[in-house]
Write the structure tokens for this entry.
Amino acid sequence: MTAAPRNLWRPTSGCDDTCLPAAGEVPDVPVARRTLRLIAATGMLLGGVGLAVLLPVLPSRERQAAVRGWARGTARALGVRLEIRGRLPRRRALLVANHVSWLDILAVLAVAPTRMVAKREVRTWPVLGLLAAAAGTVFVDRSRPRELPATVRRLADTLRAGRSVAVFPEGTTWCAGQDAAGCRPGGGFRPAMFQAAIDSGSPVVPLRLSYRCAATGSPTTAAAFLGADALLRSVARVAAARDLVVSVTIAAALHPARDADRRLLARAAESAVHLVPAPADATRTRLRPLPTVTPAPRAPTPAPGNELDLAA
């Protein structure tokens, strides 16, 4: 674990390679089985190309079913089991989750095939970028902070149109390991995207993502995708793990008032995700209007970073 510099626009975690499991810590599967998993996952990715072509012409319900089935099938191909606790509201909502891995995207889409918010670079990823674009992903250009208000307005319009949106408001991945509070990105949940829920009158649904090894019954960081990690290395580590389980816990929805404070709303959602008591002022966000008096922020200067940062 290393100290993470504070940057409001491109947050970083305090994770490094020491946050990943040591050799032999997580039971693995034979080489032949992990090879079959990688072949199956490659097949699912190639199938995603055809799906990306079909998605724009499919009716909404069929499109959601197709995305959900593809996400679950891809996770299953990698040997990852999905567990879901709780139930999503039937109406459109802003879904916010903690961020551990690239697997988070599959987990969220498998539960709720919503529109995602992703960094612009995701659009260039082979197959995944094509599928993300076809699914209506909202891409954020991290090099242009002044475009953020327009992105928030676009999300609010999407919510008003009856479509849910999923965001990772921590802004970067981190290991989420036990006793790893120092690894969490500084500043907590970033509040910008919560304004879209307030403006559109949409509920905010916190999602808690956690990973464990069913073979040992213990939480694991095997799926964590950290700044110094390579994507292929991370995929290979997941395919090698025995009985890897990702749990998606759907917390109670938060219903912000029209003039609620997005910062307090973000703190309340973060408390629900990380199971820590919400500050009293954040709790009141659900119960009564809290006027926002905030000076216009100066656009921060983007800083380079290698971590997976899928939310602005």
